[in-house]
Design brief:
This protein is α+β, with helices and mostly antiparallel strands. It is 36% helix and 25% strand. The protein has one domain: Aminopeptidase (3-Layer(aba) Sandwich). The protein is globular and about 45 Å long.
Length: 153
Amino acid sequence: MHVERLTYDTVPDMLVLLKELHDMSNVKHIPWDQEEARASANMCVDMPNCFGCVAMHDGQVVGVMVGCVVKMIYSKASIGIEEAIYVRLLVPERAKVAAQMLQWFVLWCKDLGAVDIRTGSMAGIDNYAIDVFYRSHGFKRAGMMYSLKEPRT
């Protein structure tokens, strides 16, 4: 098992995993758009401030992580933002694989000068396990997230 940078060759398999994550998440009511997802994934290959990696096992993509480094709106400083991390449930050493992807993301963010790195889960899938995972890697709570599925005007 190893982690490697996302490439155009691994984008299609990465999208399969992201679709699995979408279908389990609390945003599954929002329609999945394959072409939009592909365009976003390609940005993770093309753009220097976008990150994408995949975990490989026996030649198959079994995990994915995407994120970015962006300039803060009120400062010249930049922060890293993890957008998704997912490893299939039946993958041996699942937590270790996720940790490898996270560590690679942290190093990448630091290389791009990020002064802070934000991670978490907006998917609503096993929030307790996510909390334990991030805390075990030195992250601390940094706020809360809310949802308004049917915005009123």
